[in-house]
Amino acid sequence: MKPRRSTIKDVARRAGVAVSTASLVLNSKGYVSAELRRKVLRAVEELDYVPNRSARALVGKSTGNIGFIVAQEHFSKVEPFYTKVLLGTEFEARQHDYYILLTTVPFSYRANALPRFITEQSVDGVICAGRMGDRYAAELVERGIPAVVVDYGFKTVRLPVINVDNVRGGFLATEHLLSLGHRRIAFLGGDAGHPSIASRLIGYREAFRERGIVVDERLIRADEPGTGTADGYNGTRNLLRTKEPFTALFACNDAMAIGALRALKESGIHIPLNVSLVGFDNIDLCFHIDPRLTSVHVPKEELGAQALKVLLAVIEKGSTAVTNTLIDPELIVRESSSRPGRT
Amino acid sequence: MKPRRSTIKDVARRAGVAVSTASLVLNSKGYVSAELRRKVLRAVEELDYVPNRSARALVGKSTGNIGFIVAQEHFSKVEPFYTKVLLGTEFEARQHDYYILLTTVPFSYRANALPRFITEQSVDGVICAGRMGDRYAAELVERGIPAVVVDYGFKTVRLPVINVDNVRGGFLATEHLLSLGHRRIAFLGGDAGHPSIASRLIGYREAFRERGIVVDERLIRADEPGTGTADGYNGTRNLLRTKEPFTALFACNDAMAIGALRALKESGIHIPLNVSLVGFDNIDLCFHIDPRLTSVHVPKEELGAQALKVLLAVIEKGSTAVTNTLIDPELIVRESSSRPGRT
DNA sequence: GTTGTGTATCGAAACGTTTCGATATTGGGC
DNA sequence: GCCCAATATCGAAACGTTTCGATACACAAC
After folding, report:
1. Residue with CA nearest C15 C1'?
2. Closest residue in chain B to residue A98, using alpha carbons only
3. Does the beta carbon of A101 lie under 8 angstroms from any beta carbon of chain B?
4. What residues of chain B score a pLDDT lower than 70?
5. What is the pLDDT of residue A79?
6. Nucleotides on chain D within 7 angstroms of protein Cβ
7. Does A55 touch chain B (CB under 8 A)?
8. Which of the residues B54, B58, B97 would you substitute to probe the A interface, choosing the one with the greatest number of A C-beta atoms within 10 Å?
9. Who has the most CB within 10 Å: A26, B55, B79, B238?
10. Same domain, A33 and A180
């Protein structure tokens, strides 16, 4: 009932050629006459032959696997952000005949937490998704394993990066609010140490500068410990407590925006009549909350797909350049932003 | 800079033993004296040796990988349901030193869509997550590949199943509404061909029967094409159009409940004052919508973890029994359900 | 003293590939 | 008519493991 899988030897025998010739045909290498090639291919067909990946990996260097590393804390977040990135990677990988080995790691580096697939040499390269300890990246570089980073940028380790254009995104969000007539636009960023958030803030400032408007620094809040819903909630309450008037709020991601929304609602502030709200990421949730959230769309699947493409270039061409791939974001206007009303 | 990784030969040489002895030590097999064992382990330590997985897979039968198959259409759904299942599996897998090879397949079987990791023999077993074409399962069985199913049950193929107790869940939801005093409780199920939905409906009926109350069949709606937000919306509108009065609605999953919520709101029906609403799955969204949705919690991570455990039993013990593992659901009461008010 | 059994160690084969020579066979250029 | 390069094919080695005998030594049982 479970017939032994056929091997390249079976193919060779049936085609009446040497194993090495069959191998050449299968890999389109060297010189093989048209006739033998045909015979081999026929045998492959008849025997339903598929090369054994382990054997291939053993002799050659390629395993056909790509490791996808994401911090535990990120992957299980409310918004399936990295799931979508992963999905994009997986889809792209399938086109190139690669498989994805997924693993999560603790956020901060732990000595023995390095994914086993790296020490056991069962991946050709690695994609690091999102923020994680720099040491992870350092280890990868040290071992000479091809790697790229998506949606983050290590400070101390230089690796190719695939990211959404956060500066541009910050600009789009802010310019949207400015063009609606808002002038007092608060910026709600969590941990300003995160490069993406810093970039979004730069975009925020650029939008103001381009219009020759001076930013009121008191409206920039970037002192929460994290970037989750709770941080958005707390940050907004802190902001309200300062009594600084504002007619719009740009939260550095949707999770924080949702927290902000709750805080504002609780204070009897209507969205968007009293305060316009714009988020970042355009997670699915944006569409299901009330009011629907205006947000900067991040093409998550595309991030993942691009990451794989760049990684493959590193693997196959041995390219070692530290490239920086930027993906364009897009502003999605929904119900949470409008012209300023009475405050 | 990139030192060749050490092999078992290096270990053997350094320990002054034969390769085969080193292998015995590493696998805790056969007879090895305490002294040699110590020497070998020291050499392993000193050389930072890690066995090469490909070589192992080639000779032995174990690859140390588990395939996780989920239908494309499901994985990219709004709610990260299967992501959490996957997360549970991944976590459990790490404890047992297995890796997860993820792949998505088209919902309905296509001839050449069988994951490559199966044909290439790079997994020891497979977890099928959620509904997908029966042919996939049939192929697996035919090839004699250990497999289990989580959150679904194939009709024509017999495989071990890991599932939430849907009957119990349906019962809990309905009993909750009954105990609040509701009597006219609508059931909103999408595609009734799905075994989970059918089971939830059974639970619904049981709750009524236990109280000796007759179900009004006109309140059971299970004729939408799918189980998404849009189906919930349409189904609810159809239900409203029948003019059948009801004071509560049990949607067979949260996505449909959210669609229902929108439809009800649009008709000026207040939740929960006019109609109580209960969903199923307890996706994160439940907590972020207004009002917060009462739902039946499905321990998704646990489903994934259990699936792995059962699969490992099949792989390692060769157990071929068609088991049926049921996980207990739990009712989470939030704001969307209350005693019946004026209708 | 022979036989048997449990302990200990090792060499070699095997797993399914790819790749490196080795060896033929052409045919064109001279 | 000879040489060289291009074409074609093959056998064997190599990749890093595990596992299967083979061998050897104790020690107990008869």
Report:
1. B59
2. B116
3. yes
4. 1-3, 76-79, 342-343
5. 66
6. 7-21
7. yes
8. B54
9. B79
10. no
pLDDT at A1 over 50: no
Peptide bond into B299 cis (omega under 30): no
| Per-residue pLDDT tens over the stretch A100-111 | 998 888 888 887
Do residue B234 and residue B252 come from a single domain?
A: yes
Per-residue confidence (pLDDT) for residue B212, from 0 to 100: 96
Distance CA B241, CA A249 (A): 41
In which band, very low, low, confident or very high, does the pLDDT at A342 lie, cut at 50, 70 and 90?
A: low
Query: Is B213 inside a domain boundary?
Result: yes
- Give the per-residue pLDDT at A9: 95
Chain A partners of B8 at a C-beta cutoff of 8 Å?
none
Pairing assessment for the beta strands A248-251 and B276-281 based on DSSP bridges: unpaired
DSSP state of B70: E
- Do the domain assignments include residue B338? no
Residues B201 and B271 in one domain: yes
* Both tokens assigned to A224: 């929460």
A247 and A265 in a single domain? The answer is yes
Same domain for A222 and A249, yes or no, is yes
Residue B56 falls inside a structural domain: no
Selecting from B65, B102, B121 the residue whose C-beta is nearest the C-beta of A90 gives B102
Q: Are residues A91 and A213 in the same domain?
A: no
Distance from CA of A302 to the nearest CA of B (A): 14
Q: Is B342 within the bounds of a domain?
A: no
Task: Assign A319 a pLDDT band (cuts: 50, 70, 90).
Answer: confident
| Chain A residues 180-219 within an 8 A CB cutoff of chain B | none
> What's chain B's average pLDDT?
91
Same domain as B247, residue B192:
yes
Tell me, what CATH number does A81's domain have? 3.40.50.2300
Let me know: does A314 contact A141? Beta carbons within 8 Å.
Answer: no
Residue B160 tokens, joined:
């071990």
Rounded to whole angstroms, the Cα distance separating B319 from B284 reads: 36
The model's confidence at residue A75, banded by pLDDT at 50, 70 and 90, is: confident
Q: Which residue of A has its CA nearest to B88?
A: A76
DSSP SS3 for B298 = coil
B258 and A99: CB-CB below 8 Å?
Answer: no
Q: How many structural domains compose chain B?
A: 3
Query: What range defines the domain where residue B86 resides?
Result: 65-164+300-327
Residues 6+ positions from A241 with CB-CB distance below 8 Å = none
In this structure, the answer to whether residues A174 and A293 fall within a common structural domain is yes
Across the strands, what pairs with A299?
none
Residue B152 sits at the chain A interface (C-beta within 8 Å): no
What whole-number distance in Å separates Cα of residue B31 and Cα of residue B25? 9
Q: Compute the distance between CA of residue B203 and CA of residue B184 in angstroms, rounded to an integer.
A: 16
